[in-house]
Amino acid sequence: MVTPGENAAVGEVSPEQLADFQKAFDADPRNRQSMNAVCTTPVTKVALNRRKVTQTNMTFSVHLPENKITSQNSSGRCWMFAALNTLRVVAMKNMNLGEDFELSQNHTMFWDKFEKSNYFLESVLKTLDEPTDGRLIAHLFNAPIQDGGQWHMFINLVKKHGLVPKAIMPETDSSSNTAQMNWQITLRLREFGCRLREAHADGKSMDQLRKMKPGMLETIYKMLCIHLGEPPTQFEWQWRDKDKAFHRDGTLSPQEFYRKHIDVDLSDMVCLIHCPQKAKTFNEVYTVKFLGNVVGGETIKYLNVDLDVMKQASIKQMQNGEPVWFGCDVGKYLDREMGWMDNELFNYELVYGSAPTLTKAERLDYGESLMTHAMVFTGVDLDDSGNPRKWRVENSWGDKGGDKGFYGMTDAWFDEFNYEVVVHKKYLPAEYVKMLDREPVGLEPWDPMGSLA
Predict the structure, then answer these.
(1) Which stretches of 268-328 are assigned E, i.e. beta strand?
(2) What is d(CA 48, CA 61) in angstroms, rounded to the nearest whole number?
(3) CA–CA distance from 255 to each of 140, 259, 311 (Å)?
(4) Residue 4 reports pLDDT greater than 70
(5) pLDDT tens across 366-403, in order?
(6) 83: in domain
(7) Which positions are catalytic?
């Protein structure tokens, strides 16, 4: 055992220890082999498990009809794309449309940014006496209009603002590349939040503070119109279906379009999460404080369940021909070119000589994992006993990776890195539906279950 020198600080790494580390590294030729390889080649290429690559198979026993893949480009709208991709299936069926049809992701983004801005200002008004250097204010001001979101936030947008076809409000440069727009709007929101807190500190009443809000929101609305275009209040909708028949609806509002051509009761959809942290309880309902977009809309509500409950409900929904929205930590053990998610896809332990041992709960506890991306299940491969082996995934990263933009996921990867699915409550056992009537337990805003896809 090497001990620190006479004047060394407790815990300081000594020269003797460094010499021992170097000696140990040089003693194993496998370390030099790994060094030579990784210094010239990405570690993901060096560690790629060739046996797993050759075992990859993109056929599934349950395989839903699929449409042209979408692309969120350089934006964080995966949750929105995934939700719209589930609803466009309904719209396409009802209007007999071909696979190229899309619902406008720019339209939902416009209203999400606007509603998040109002939600942020209301959160500021609720926290006026919180210390500026406290954790809550730091959290609220960190990213007030980030691109990410959750299922209930999508419900709120559809209920209040409806939907439109992509042709009615197409993409803009800023909708596909959100960084500059987000910076400019975040700058103004932080300014407005600062001014509200200053006015409160100067003794202004709540009524006086609220009179400041409309001017702030008008500025945000104007900025969003400049970046994303003006959202339609009404539009003329006509189309030719895939059998070449012509249809004309006349003039519709976004809400009327949704009710006429989609009309899914989104409130019947349930968010199931799998969070095995010791601080959480299975079969408990949770919400997240200060997480939302539409003031007065539905609050985030999660039911924490075992993995098997999530899987069986998802399988039943797909067996009935309906895709499944889900949220996961997509960056773990993923090869984008292959479009494959597999815990055993990379032999990092052979490169480094050791393997990590954190559990799913520990990864959540210590910041190693959380939900980062939402996609859609469009298939599952079941064994002869009906157990899932792998899952087919509709992504929103364009058609370059995987099977023309469709990915695969092993069931073991699902266990470790999938956190949420959205299913219709009719696919859940009755006892779980009853649990949803409970008052949800409020999680802190920085809880990992408060992360946005």
Answers:
(1) 269-273, 284-288, 302-304, 324-328
(2) 27
(3) 31, 6, 33
(4) no
(5) 999 999 999 999 999 999 999 999 999 999 999 999 99
(6) no
(7) 78, 373, 395
Say if residue 152 is in the same domain as residue 236: yes
Per residue in 152-206, pLDDT tens?
999 999 999 999 999 999 999 999 999 999 999 999 999 999 999 999 999 999 9
Spatial distance between the Cα atoms of 276 and 298, rounded to a whole number of angstroms: 25
Clarify whether residues 390 and 444 are in a common domain.
yes
Residue numbers of the domain that contains 402: 43-77+265-290+299-453
Cα dihedral: 110, 114, 117, 119 (round 10): -110
Q: Are residues 282 and 400 in the same domain?
A: yes
Per DSSP, 343 falls in state T
pLDDT at 192: 99
Q: Which amino acid is present at 284?
A: E
436 shares a domain with 337? yes
Total Cβ atoms within 10 A of residue 73: 16
Decide: 339 and 395 in contact? Cβ < 8 Å: yes
The model's pLDDT over 314-351, given as tens digits with 9 standing for 90+, comes to 999 999 999 999 999 999 999 999 999 999 999 999 99
